[in-house]
Amino acid sequence: MKIENSLPILLLAIPLFFMMQIGHTSPVEEHVVSYSGFQVWTVATNTDEERSALLKYVQLYVPKPFQKELGKKLSEANITFVIKIADLKEVIKNENANIKTSTFSKSKSAHNMNWTSYHRLADIYDYMSYLAATYPSLVSLINIGSSYEKRPLYVLRISNSSSLCSKPVIWIDGGIHAREWISPAVTTYIIKQLVEVSANSKMLFDVDWYIMPVMNPDGYEYTHVYNRLWRKTRSMTSSPSCRGVDPNRNFGFKWGGLGTSTNPCSDIYKGTKAFSEPETLATSNFILGKANQIKMYLTLHSYGQSALIPWGYDVAYPNDYNDMLALAKSAVSKFLKYKFSVGNSAALYYPAAGGSDDWAKSIGIKYSYTFELADTGTYGFLLPASNILPVAQDFFPALGVFATKVATLKI
């Protein structure tokens, strides 16, 4: 979810070209983006004015030729900064270091999935298909539409009931933002636990699950092939040199409000209208068709280690905020390894209109949350694959708290 907005020029008196905001622009021609020589800097804020202007903090992706001058200008402005990543290219190279040795041939197994590596979309979809074929009494694979580049949008229904409308539902999605690889990894781990681990069968007694591991498959594939830090979809825009819409600014509640942009080259570009993207439109239509049954909406992002509660479009609170807060705190109490903050989205981070969690809440889904997974900024979007299992294993017990609550709700 984190965004890297350009620092206000008047505040810092730094030329815009120092703010190398990765993902803000991308030529239509496909080419591999190199991060050789780049560093990641975190800029701290000291005053309320700075916090307001900088959205509490900013990360800069700084190319080598500008590092000395930018550091000087920040120091002259008495702005504290820390070099979080000294060699961005090396971190990206090592993020998925085990991919060649940890995956195995399909000739030996029906799928390639594991949770020691980040996987391409084909592996994730093959795993979903495998589960549907292997556990037909528990798993249904649903194609809810196609992405801009015509990739299928798959949702997995997990239920021990043949009736489609007999139980309340928990919806979980991941991969809205392409570069947040830990999100699809954790959603697929949840799927594995619910389907393949018999000890968790109790979590299917009174609740059905609909899980969409990758809502933005075009962007996700693009991060694996061309630009690791791409965030948006891959649709064409009015700008010939910039593609994509931020899908988490494209949902139809308070669309176009605070924390969005009309600039197609921005990472937070809202699109030409609400649900302009086939991915957000297909997802919202599917959820609307089951809105009476879906009692909880969980969307997994990274990074920040926070459980965020609507509203996100501004610092505003729904009438049942205290109920939502109490349940989120109960769920987060199950985390042992990672400490999570809990609170209102806009208050803990920044206002951001058009988010999926706000939209889900607006259509009557009582419990709607965004979870920003690990870490808190050491690696950020580039969390090494060695963290997948620790993050996923720490997160999963919280779902038991949610399932217990949802099971008490009538449809």
Share of β-strand residues: 15-25%
Strand order of the largest sheet: 4-5-7-6-8-11-9-10
Question: Which structural class matches the secondary elements?
Answer: alpha/beta
CATH superfamily of the largest domain: Zn peptidases
The global form is globular
Largest sheet: 8 strands, mixed
Radius of gyration, whole Å: 21 Å
Low-confidence stretches: 2-28, 50-56, 101-105
Précis, in short:
The protein has 411 residues and is of the alpha/beta class. The chain has 13 helices and 11 strands.
Can you describe this structure?
This protein is an alpha/beta fold. The chain has 2 domains: 9-95, Metallocarboxypeptidase-like (Alpha-Beta Plaits), CATH 3.30.70.340; 110-406, Aminopeptidase (3-Layer(aba) Sandwich). It has helices at residues 9-12, 48-54, 64-76, 88-95, 99-102, 121-134, 182-196, 217-225, 278-289, 321-332, 345-348, 356-362, 388-406, and strands at 39-43, 58-62, 81-85, 139-146, 152-158, 169-173, 208-212, 294-302, 306-309, 341-344, 367-373. It is globular.
